Amino acid sequence: MHAAVERSYEGFLDEFNAHLGKHDFLLGSRPSIGDFGFIGPLYAHLYADPAPSKLMRERAPNVARWVERMQHPEPLSGTFLPNDEIPDTLIPLLTRVFREQTPVLQDTVRAVTEWCAANPATDALPRVIGRHRFTLEGASNDRAIQPYAQWMFQRPVQFYQQLSDAERARIAPLLQQVGGLDALNTAITTPLEYVGYQVRRVG
């Protein structure tokens, strides 16, 4: 999957670089929780590593400068875009996230449900409960199924599903555009919690 992972990274860099050519951060001139979500892997795993850092600086200089800005964010500085606007430059990036992650996460939910049904007396789930097939940039391989991924996924799913009908209707066009509507409508029948550094079934 080496070549596929690199193609995905390069595509992400191109899309994020184009966005940062117009905006300092994801949603304007002020860092949001989304920026802080991105900075962990982009700094620690990529910017701090010589090879991907070189690629980032050469291919996506706006991303490299964003990483540097995020090391020293100014508290309460800048502004978000008015009216909760999602800039058009984020559409390719959001589409990539849903395209690459939704199949894996939905299959993880299915696997967790099946594992819990097969192990009714066990509340704590192991870190890995099997393997499944995934596809990235046209290449396929097997990966470990990690219940922790469902715990992370179910938080935005539950938030979305608890919105009012009017609130869901307001964001439905954007979710349809980026391919996220199916993901956030995922039925999670075996919810998980994270307690004492361990993933457990709720209740």
What does this structure look like?
The chain is mainly alpha-helical. It has two domains: 2-82, no CATH class; 93-201, no CATH class. Helices cover 57% and strands 10% of the residues. The chain has eight helices and four strands, in the order αααααββαααββ. It has helices spanning 2-20, 33-47, 50-59, 61-70, 91-118, 147-161, 165-178, 181-184, and strands at residues 131-136, 139-144, 192-195, 198-201. The protein has a two-stranded antiparallel sheet. Strand 1 (131-136) and strand 2 (139-144) form a beta hairpin. Helix 1 packs across helix 4. The longest helix has 28 residues, at 91-118. The radius of gyration is 19 Å and the shape is globular. The termini are far apart.
Shape: globular
Instruction: Count the DSSP helices.
Output: 8
Order of neighbouring strands in the sheet with most strands:
1-2
Rg, alpha carbons: 19 Å
Number of domain units: 2
Helix content: 55-70%
Question: What is the first-to-last residue Cα distance?
Answer: 38 Å
Could you give a short account of the major beta sheet? 2 strands, antiparallel
Descriptors for this entry?
two-stranded antiparallel sheet, two-stranded antiparallel ribbon, globular, 10% strand, single chain, 203 residues, mainly alpha
